[in-house]
Design goal:
Blueprint: H1 6-11, E1 17-21, H2 27-39, E2 46-50, H3 56-66, E3 74-76, H4 84-96, E4 103-105, H5 113-123, E5 130-132, H6 141-152, E6 160-162, H7 169-180, E7 188-190, H8 203-208, H9 214-218, H10 235-244, H11 249-260, H12 277-292, H13 295-308, H14 322-336, H15 338-341
Parallel strand pairs: 1-2, 2-3, 3-4, 4-5, 5-6, 6-7
Helix pairs in contact: 2-3, 3-4, 4-5, 5-6, 6-7, 12-14
C-alpha cells in the first residue's frame, strides 16, 4: 500500500498529518513506510504510529526517516513496543532534528529506566510541552528520578506529563512533589491509578501551599492545576489545585495568602519606617482587584466548599476579610509609630 501511495506522499504539498493505526508490518512493508515518510512533503507536522506491530530494526529505520522532517510538532508512538534501543534512537532524533517537537506520546510501551534516562537527556531544554509515558510498567524509582530532574531543570518547558498506571506509589509521589517545589511550568501531572495511598497524596500539600509563613505561601507552586482526578486526593490539595486555575501566579498567591493567613506581622519592616507603608497599602488594592475580578469563580469554590471545607467560617473562607487584614496592618503601623500619625496641632 505504501509503495502504491509513494507518488501521493512525494507530490502532496499540503499533507499535515500521517496516522497509521493497528497494522502488522513485515520487513518489506516497514521499509516502504520509511520511504514514504522520508519523501513526505515538509508540510508534515504530525506523525502518529499507534499500536502497530513492527520489528525493532524497522522501527529504528522509521525514526531515521523522520530525520527528514525537522518541522514535526507532534509524534505519537503508543503501543509500538518501544524499548531501550528505540529510546536511544528516538533521543537522537529529538536532540538533533525535531527541535520544534511539542507533543510526544509514548504510552503503552516497554520503556525502562535506561530508556527514560536517554529520553530525558534529549528532552532537557527542548520545546516539548506534553509528554505521555503512561502504562510503561518497567519504569522504577530510578526512572522517576530522571523524570523529576527534567521538571527541576530551569529550561524545562513541559506543561503536561501523563503517567497513568505506572506503579508509581507513595515513593514516586514524593519524588514528583519535591521536583514541583522549583517548577513553574507544569500544569497537569496525571498520576491516577498508580497505587498512591491516602498517605502519599499529602506530600503535595506543602508544595502547593506552604502555610508556615506568608513568604513561603507566596513562593509555593501556583502553576499545577491537576493530578489526574484521583478519588483520594485530600481536600487541601484539591483546594490549592482549584485556586491555581484562577489566573496568573501573582493573583493565585494573593488568594492563598488571604485564605490561609489571618494576621500579617509587619514588625520586621518597621526598621524602614514608612517606606513599606505605600507598598502594603498598594498590595491590598491589588488584592481587592483580584477578588473583584474573580467573583464568578468564587461561586464555583463555594460549591466545592460545601463538600470539602464546611468547617471554615466566613472570615476564613478563601479570600474574604481583606478589609480586616488592611485595618490590622494600619493598626500595627500606628501603634509602632504614633508620633508619625499624630494629628498636627491646630493653628493658633
Amino acid at each position: 500500500v505504501f509503495q502504491w501511495l509513494g507518488p501521493f506522499f512525494e507530490n502532496n504539498n499540503n499533507l499535515s498529518e500521517l496516522k497509521v493505526y493497528g497494522c502488522n508490518f513485515g520487513v518489506g512493508s516497514a521499509r516502504q513506510l520509511s520511504l514514504a515518510i522520508q519523501v513526505c512533503s515538509k508540510s508534515l507536522k504530525s506523525i502518529k504510529l499507534e499500536h502497530n506491530q513492527m520489528g525493532d530494526e524497522q522501527l529504528t529505520d522509521v525514526f531515521e526517516a523522520m530525520a527528514m522532517h525537522p518541522q514535526l510538532e507532534e509524534l505519537f508512538l503508543p503501543g509500538m513496543n518501544i524499548g531501550r534501543n528505540e529510546c536511544i534512537a528516538l533521543a537522537n532524533l529529538v536532540r538533533s532534528t525535531t527541535t520544534r517537537l511539542e507533543d510526544l506520546n509514548l504510552d503503552s510501551n516497554a520503556i525502562d529506566d535506561e530508556g527514560v534516562d536517554a529520553l530525558m537527556d534529549a528532552l532537557t531544554g527542548s520545546s516539548l510541552l506534553c509528554l505521555g509515558l503512561s502504562l510503561n510498567h518497567n519504569i522504577t524509582v530510578t526512572g522517576l528520578q530522571s523524570l523529576a530532574a527534567l521538571l527541576e531543570h530551569p529550561n524545562s518547558n513541559l506543561e503536561m506529563l501523563f503517567l497513568y498506571d505506572n506503579n508509581i506509589g507513595d515513593a514516586g509521589a514524593r519524588i514528583f512533589a519535591n521536583a514541583l517545589a522549583t517548577n513553574c511550568k507544569l500544569k497537569i501531572l496525571y498520576l491516577s491509578n498508580n497505587g498512591i495511598s491516602a498517605g502519599g497524596w499529602p506530600c503535595f500539600s506543602k508544595v502547593l501551599c506552604d502555610t508556615s509563613s506568608i513568604n513561603k505561601t507566596f513562593l509555593s507552586n501556583h502553576t499545577l492545576e491537576s493530578l489526574g482526578g484521583a478519588p483520594n486526593i485530600p481536600a487541601d490539595v484539591a483546594s490549592s489545585l482549584a485556586l491555581n486555575m484562577g489566573g496568573g501566579k501573582r493573583q493565585v498567591a494573593i488568594k492563598k495568602i488571604l485564605k490561609h493567613h489571618q494576621h500579617f506581622d509587619m514588625h520586621p519592616f518597621f526598621e524602614w519606617d514608612l517606606k513599606v507603608w505605600p507598598i502594603a497599602i498598594n498590595w491590598f488594592k491589588r488584592a481587592r482587584s483580584v477578588v473583584d475580578n474573580n467573583n464568578d469563580d468564587d461561586d464555583e469554590y463555594e460549591d466545592d466548599s460545601d463538600e470539602n471545607y464546611s468547617d471554615e467560617s466566613d472570615e476564613n473562607n478563601d479570600w474574604a476579610g481583606i478589609d480586616n487584614h488592611k485595618l490590622g496592618v494600619i493598626y500595627q503601623f500606628i501603634r509602632a509609630m504614633p508620633e508619625v500619625f499624630e494629628p498636627a496641632p491646630a493653628a493658633s
